[in-house]
Design a protein that fits this description.
alpha/beta; Arginase, Chain A; 8-stranded parallel sheet; two-stranded antiparallel ribbon; disordered C terminus
Amino acid sequence: MRLTLYPRLPLTLTLPRQGGNFSEGYPVPVSRPITIVTHPLYLAHDTGGGEHPETPARLTALLAKLQASPLKDRLTIIEPRKAERCWLTTFHAEHYLFRLEECALSGKTHIDHPDNQLCFESYEAALLSAGAGLTGIDLLEGEDNLVFCAVRPPGHHAESNLALGFCFLNNCVVAARYWQRQYGRKRILILDFDAHHGNGIQSAFEEDPDVFYLSLHEHPTFSFPGSGYAEETGTGPGRGATLNIPLPPGADDQMVLNAFARRVEPALAAFGPERIIVAAGFDGHRDDDMSGLAYSTELYGRLGEHLADWAKKFCQGKLLSILEGGYHLESLAGSAATYLTALSNHSIEEEPCSSPST
């Protein structure tokens, strides 16, 4: 069931107009609706205020930007379900899940490291964050084509038994396993364009030849978490199914686009994914102090165009994006809106409209 959340952000779904005064063969401009999966409890995940960068204001800014943009008429918002334990344990250790729950419910202020701030509501928020990917996949296996999970806490740093980098549950990993085991989509590409390497995603699949992890990030010599060197390509049967593209500080749009053309596109074509998950972090923006990269807002639109093309080519147009980083409020909101607009505009081929029969 589709629900409208956040009454102050009344996003509605507008389908392309059918028919009209078009002569036969004239291309009808259409844009693909996008489903946003999000939940009010994400805002209750309290990281202590002060100077902690991962705050509820991130999500508020993003959703407000969507409401104020032309994209709003193409969007609908629904609530996720909580991720079930059986799906969480496809990656996370049982003892870690118990420990995470206990830390939140007992009033502790962090888990594993002071950066990983939590509160009483944080465990429920994390379950809903992981559940957003599962909800999105259910939608994509139905009639939806584009789903964006506007979630917090983020996930790509979380290890099987360790919270790390503001992340508690690894949303992308759990989603990939769900797609494989619930729907039989064997070959999954996870493309991570967050400024920081997704160590948790890589560790989950480094021996798995059926999940290709591809990450563009700031070079680990200069950036948290210190992993993601080009030499890390997977192990055992998964060797070759990891592609890390570390970028130097100051890397700009052209460096990313060159990497896409020379390395990403050939790797993608060779792998041939059935489904694509995007770890969508927007902290590579030049205004974001959490990295030394120098991306523009417009770059995220170019990435959206590429991903929409790949989804059409390999995945019947199906694409799941899950929010990761992005801490400068204005650049996060603007970059995410630009990315989603490009996905929507570029995700469906223009088709000729036949003249109405008379």
